[in-house]
Task: structure prediction
Amino acid sequence: MDAYGSKACGPVATAGMSDYGLSLLGPNGLSIGCSHMPKFLRIGVHQSNVSGYTSKAWWIRRVGSTVFLKWGAVEVEGVGEGRKIYWTLPPRAKTVRCGTVQRAKDYAATAIARRRNHRYESLAGRIAIRRRPADRGAELEKALATILFVDIVRSTEKAARLGDARWTQVMNHYYAAVRRELKTLRGKEVVTTGDGLLATFDAPAAGIRCATAIREAVRTLGLEIRVGLHAGEYKVSGADVIGLAFHIGARVAAKARAGEVLVSSAVKDLMSQSGIRFGDRGVHQLKGVPKRWRLYRVED
Result:
């Protein structure tokens, strides 16, 4: 069973937040998706974070025996025919190779049915990346922060075992616990991504303390998480945040084991006087990131 409620067909390649998986951009390089791909949208409740509505979009495309998926948080502007939808961050992507056309069709049908059961509405229009004026760079302000990315381990298995109603309750408690710790340690929520969350901190020590506090809090819900932290520069313009540092944070989290808080060398280098102990996890090539990074485990 995978995150879309379907039995996995075979080897799965998962792309992170900075990947696009398919070459489906329009001639102007802005739009993602095409008219014959089923797309779905779930409108979220307004939250006091920089992304405004925590709404989510999901789309699927089958080509022969292969299924391509994309999903992520979106911003929704307007209503009715004038409504416009933008990716908050570049969407995550997955490629599922099913082996046969029939298995691919079955996989897609089950995945679509599950989205509809989760209050997703069919979406006919495009999901776009915001068009930026040529001189927009002059408006961008640079910021330096510690970036935290948290994700639930084996969430699909738990959701399948608990059922939709109970899993929804667990997720509500999960996000409440995460946001409580963010507030305590003055973290700033950037966006939720499925069962993950991205946040920033002014100080790396606060980010690490928040990560370990979240880990202990959600264990009372029967959940294990993996957490990645990275320190780096990004750019801000209004509600938009842009930068490779966010993608590195997500890639560091992907390397973490269940219950593990993993940090990049950029974080550890800032923590020499903190008293926090680290264990060396070696040098890793992070997918889509230009250079190799040494990662460290936060020791209990």
